[in-house]
Amino acid sequence: MESGASRLTRTASKALTLHGCEKSGVGQHFRTHFKERDIDNKLITFRGHRFNHLFYAAGATYHHLNDVIDFIESWADPNNLLKSISFDVRGKAFSSGIRALGIIDKLIAGPFWRIIETSKNILDLNPTLCHLQKNLQELSVDASPLLAGELVFEGVEVHRDSIFDSLLKDTDDPVSEMYTQMALELCAGGILLTLERQVKDQFPGVKFYEPSLGIKSMVFLLPTANTCSERDFAQLDMLVKA
Q1: Vertex 122, ends 188 and 193: CA angle to 5°?
Q2: Which segments of the chain have a pLDDT < 50?
Q3: How far from 189 is each of 45, 130, 151, 184, 209, CA to CA, in Å?
Q4: DSSP assignment, residue 224?
Q5: Concatenated DSSP letters for 122-174?
Q6: Are 110 and 196 in contact (CB under 8 A)?
Q7: In Å, what is the CA distance from 7 to each residue of 15, 85, 103?
C-alpha cells in the first residue's frame, strides 16, 4: 500500500512536470505559472530517474507546497488528479511526510550516495555502513538531530539550496514538527531494517568486515552501485511510456 506522502510526491510529479501524465498533466501551465512569478521550479519528472527520486521529489514538492496550492486554486475546474493533489497538500500528515523524505535526501541519502560514488571498492564502504547503522539506530528513536540539520556524514558535501532551507525551516507549528519527527523516526527504522538485511555480511564480526587481501582482490572490479542497471531500466521505462 502506498503512503500518503509517496502518493503526493508521485501525483505532483505526474501532474506538474513536462513529462508527466499525458491525460491529466498540466506541466506546461505549471511552468508558465512559475515563469510569470519568477519562481525557480524544482520539480522533476519520474521518468528516467533513479530509485532515490522519491526523496528528492518529496523535498521539492514540500518546497513548493504553497505554490502548488496557489496554482491549483487558479483553476476554475481542476481535473481529478489536481483535486487529489489539492486535498493531499493540505494534510499535515502528508506534508510532514514529504518534508521528512526531503530531509532524508539532504542529510542521509544524498551524502551516502556521494560516498558510494567515490569509493573504489564495495568493501571500502564497511566503515561507512557501520557508521550509518549506528546513526540510524539512534535516529529511529530520536530524530530531532535531523530536524535541527545535524550532519550524518561529517565532511561529505550536503547540497544546501533553497529546498534545504525550506525543509529545515521551523514551521512554528508544534503538530507539524511532531509529525515530521515521527515520520523521520519511522523512515530511519525502515532504512535500518533494509540496511541490516542487505549488507549483513559487512558488519563487525561477520566474514566481510575485515576482508583478506585475497577477498579484496576478488571483488576489486565489483561496482559499488548498480547505476548502470538503473540507467538501463530508466531508459526502458521511457521507451515503454513513450
Answers
A1: 20
A2: none
A3: 28, 15, 18, 9, 23
A4: S
A5: GGGGHHHHHHHHHHHHHHTT--HHHHTT--SSTTS----SHHHHHHHS--S-H
A6: no
A7: 12, 9, 18
pLDDT digits (tens, 9 = 90+) for 102-151: 999 999 999 999 998 888 888 888 899 999 999 999 999 999 999 999 99
CB under 8 Å to 117, separation ≥6 — which residues?
Answer: 224, 225
In sequence order, the 6+-apart residues with CB closer than 8 A to the CB of 156 are 111, 114, 115
Cell of residue 183, nine digits: 515520520
In the block, cell 560516498 appears at 115
Locate 139 and state its grid cell: 535516529
Q: Which residues of 169-185 are buried (b: 16+ CB within 10 A; e: fewer)?
A: eeeeeeebbebbbebbb
DSSP output for 61-86: HHHTHHHHHHHHHT-SS--HHHHHHH
What cell numbers appear for 210 in the block? 575485515
Write the single-letter amino acid at 18: L
Q: Cβ–Cβ contacts within 10 Å for residue 2, how many?
A: 9
Residue 60: name the closest of 103, 112, 30, 109 by CA. Answer: 103
Q: CB–CB of 3/48 below 8 Å?
A: no
